[in-house]
Target: ATP-dependent 6-phosphofructokinase
Amino acid sequence: MNKIGVLTSGGDAPGMNAAIRSVVRVALHHGLNVVGIRRGYAGLIDGDFYQMNRSSVSDIIQRGGTILLSARCEEFKTPEGRQKALHNMQQEGIEALVVIGGDGSLTGAQKIDKELGIPVIGIPGTIDNDLAGTEITIGCDTAMNTVIDAINKIRDTATSHERTFVIETMGRRCGFLTVMTALAGGADAILIPEMNYDLDDICNKLIKRQEMGRLHNIVLVAEGVGEDFKTNRNLDESPAFFISRLISDKTGQETRVIILGHLQRGGSPTVRDRVLASRMGAKAVELLLAGESNIMIGIEGRELVYHKISEVLSTKKEIDMGLYELGTILS
Model:
């Protein structure tokens, strides 16, 4: 093997640059050439390639986002689009790929391995932490810290004005980000897609606290509950606004809505994300050199682990219900 490619795909996550840096420098250490592929799978189809060296990844470990850029690519989902990608990789002499991203990115990686015959190693990069086969994904720790920082600041004004704030966090259909930040941030109520919830019970709980003199609250809502709300209530708006109005009507408290949105995806990665990304990037190169393919690298405890991408994609990741229950008890 003489030349490998590296790309980032899907939603950006803090730590992706650290992973790119590690892939490039470890590959160069082993005498490989490295091709950077801009804009993910769209870059494969467009042939948006450039040769990378040590300087290409200087001064990026502390930066959020991805220097390789990212994009959605519907064309790659077609056999014709993937054949274009194969042609461009063959023309460039790319013999293997490292793909950094979430489940959509891994789905594309699996097709490259199975259909196109190009060895691929996947690195899990997503703030949602919704991939099986790993305790945590690159970017999630930074996102959690960003949410906690927001909760701390929102709590100050909630206390000052005796208001209830409904805060919507990201995570798609996975409530991990919400559970962890609710526990660490001392939220007063937690709504996640994995658990049934009763809004009347939540309001009654807030009313009891109001009677005890507690006039401010933090309610955390995972964005994934929105699908249930929109289906059951015919809503065009975010469920956070519906929840806010219901709390206001039932408790008489002033309520405000904060949708953190893409704020959670940016920012300088934490130490944990930088170290995790660096370890995974190095291991990806080592696995390719060992002849491995169609594998996603994960972490369990302190040890890196490896799973077939097909297994990762076919397994639903379960969140720790014990942490959810603890967050509820402590609220």
